[in-house]
Design a protein that fits this description.
It is globular, with a radius of gyration of 22 Å. Helices cover 41% and strands 14% of the residues. It is built from 14 helices and 13 strands. By secondary structure, it is of the alpha/beta class. The strands form two sheets. The protein has a seven-stranded parallel beta sheet with strand order 3-2-1-4-5-6-7, with helices on both faces. A six-stranded parallel beta sheet has the order 10-9-8-11-12-13, with helices on both faces.
């Protein structure tokens, strides 16, 4: 790669972004904006909800009516039958795509969350720029397969995947100059589904260390506390986590679960062991930080996702991690160092790791120290942004030369 290709501060270099929700894209937008490189960021979140994101309002593009309608339905939690919700979701998506096409200014690189970038990517490439599609989870077909299987295990109808949305994502994977995923696990699912391995790039998430970190907590109650944070759903492997915790033999144990209960779990939870399990509900960042610091171990049993960035948050609090391979944990921790990584859908293996950590205080303390070191090495979101910038710059210079990234 030439030195010019690594000139991150090339005059006039512009990167534009597109996302449905905030997710981490506003962290990435701030990174580019601080360097004078942010062109625009497209979102369906109303501008008034983004006033404190540190992005100039002039760079935020939000189509007012669909954005407000989508936001209002979610905020009010109004019941919406599928025959209304699904066509509405497609209409909002289609309207946003055409909005991007009309409003997108010239940029060197267009980065879009999967499903939010096909039209904008095509416009950018036609103008000579590069298109990066970011998939925050596993390949959409891999995801559909494993979730259908998991729902079937519980005699539930498979989750709905709008075939139009699926087809659009598949076109994004095929037409983009690179597909960014947050973990090696996610990358493997793309390769398994036939995507060229040279275009699938792993860029793990960071952690906001101003929000999440280690606090001194005085605890002498002898209770072994395991924390889970995130959506309480089948996708997150909650039945396997609850079974693993029930297998743990400890005189004073507690599993605390922070997050919203997904609708499919309401009846399933009644059939699962819930002794010494506490549901905390949805916590704001301050309360979540306290929950991390008031726990001994963080456990995650996901059967599918890109990378659970709650793992990075737990590392910042110095918590040993017990995780499944399908959580993407291998890109944030080393098995046996900051915690343990076990196969998905294996509650016995998870239970054994919880037992090991509950019995060995010295091991917990050692893993806690290396967890803090690992979290510090992530350097917040700056490392994530720097890796993205290197890829964006490379693609901008090498798009027509078919040079593999890093080659």
């Amino acid at each position: 790669m030439s030195s010019a290709a690594l000139d991150y501060r090339a005059p006039g270099f512009r990167v534009s972004l597109s996302t449905w929700s905030k997710f981490h894209f506003f962290d990435l937008a701030r990174f580019f904006n601080e360097r004078g490189m942010l062109g625009q960021i497209f979102t369906n979140i109303p501008r008034f909800r983004l006033a404190h994101e540190g992005i100039p309002q002039s760079l935020i593009e939000s189509k007012s009516f669909p954005a407000l309608l989508n936001y209002g339905l979610k905020y009010l939690q109004l019941p919406c039958p599928a025959w209304i919700e699904r066509p509405l979701a497609w209409a909002i998506d289609d309207g946003q795509q055409h909005f991007i096409t009309r409003r997108l200014k010239e940029c060197d690189v267009f980065i879009a969350l999967s499903g939010a970038g096909l039209f904008g990517g095509r416009v950018t490439q036609k103008r000579g720029g590069a298109f990066i599609s970011e998939r925050a989870s596993s390949h959409v077909l891999w995801q559909r397969d494993i979730l259908s299987e998991e729902f079937g295990r519980h005699r539930l109808a498979a989750p709905f995947f709008d075939q139009r949305m699926v087809d659009k994502e598949l076109k994004e994977y095929a037409e983009s100059d690179a597909v960014v995923v947050p973990s090696s696990f996610a990358r493997h699912t793309f390769i398994e589904k036939g995507v060229d391995s040279t275009k699938v790039i792993v860029i793990p998430y960071g952690v906001d260390q101003k929000v999440f970190g280690k606090d001194v907590v005085d605890r002498n109650d002898g209770e072994f506390r395991v924390l889970w944070a995130g959506q309480i759903s089948l996708r997150k492997g909650i039945p396997y986590l609850l079974e693993a915790f029930s297998k743990l033999k400890h005189p004073r144990k507690r599993l605390r679960m922070a997050g919203a209960v997904h609708p499919e779990m309401r009846n399933i939870l009644r059939t699962l062991p819930l002794d010494n399990v506490e549901f905390l509900g949805v916590l704001d960042k301050a309360k979540l930080r306290r929950a991390f610091n008031d726990s001994d171990v963080f456990a995650i049993a996901s059967i599918e996702e890109g990378l659970a960035y709650v793992i990075a948050q737990a590392l910042a609090a110095g918590l040993p991690i017990v995780a499944t391979e399908n959580s993407g944990a291998a890109d944030l921790i080393t098995n046996g160092v900051e915690g343990f990584i076990e196969p998905a859908r294996d509650p016995s293996a998870l239970a054994e790791r919880l037992r090991q950590l509950s019995d060995d205080v010295g091991l917990r303390q050692t893993m806690s120290q290396v967890a803090l070191t690992r979290a510090a090495a992530l350097r917040g979101w700056s490392q994530h942004g720097a890796r993205y910038l290197r890829l964006a710059t490379h693609l901008s210079h090498a798009r027509n030369r078919k040079v593999p990234f890093g080659g």
